[in-house]
Amino acid sequence: MLKSTMNQNKVQTLKGFRDFLPEAMAVRNYVKNLLIDTFETFGFEPIETPTLEYSSVLMGKYGDEADKLVYSFTDNGDRQIGMRYDLTVPTAKVLAMYSQTIPMPFKRYQIQPVWRAENTQKGRYREVLQCDIDTFGTNSPIADAEILAVINTVLQKLNFKTFTILINSRIVLNNILKACKITEDKNSILQSLDKFSKIGQDGVTKELIGKNIPKAKITVLFKYIKQAQPDEYLQNVINQLKILGVSKNNYQFDPTIVRGLDYYTGPIFETVVTKPK
User: Which residue numbers delimit the Aminoacyl-transfer RNA synthetases class-II family profile domain (predicted)?
Assistant: First the structure.
């Protein structure tokens, strides 16, 4: 039994964190089990990594802005420690440590909490349960297409009626910047472009002007964005989707999709669910 001293202080959950009662846990566990079943049907295998890593493992991998969101501290052994910010970087550590043990290509899934020192707002928390699937050790477009097929299958199993998987590539974005003769502030420009779906072209333009990007250069940027087409590799990924049974209604090429982390180098995906909202 809890001591009565608990009642003498205001009891509350830390900002940005949540408690889940049995009713909510039933839904979360249903979704989690459905995800696991789908991943394993596609041949992905589970791994887990520690909550805490050496700061040197985590820092410098996400970009300057994201690095600021890593929970880091000095532990009792005077070691620089960080809490898991995402699942990709810890998996890269696993691959480096166990390269002689893990056969390639390696198809892994991982479902664990991650922690980010976010400015909390609707839909953004400081602790979230993240779900990752990746294929390592192959450059085949089939591997990327398979990830999209998994996303498509999961959303259909969850009975989402209308959704769109938005597809782009950092190669496409880099080619756009090159065509615009943009050689400086690339990440800053892409960070603004990534807000296109929320604030539109006018909003992105205003933000870029605030970053001292010349208006003429912004005009050229949007000209090339409107003309953009998938690069050869990304087109091969898209071509594979039909073979994997993904309907054309469920995906589209969108050259404004950026995603925020610096380690993205190729295809990038984002899913928008429109029904049910």
Answer: 12-277
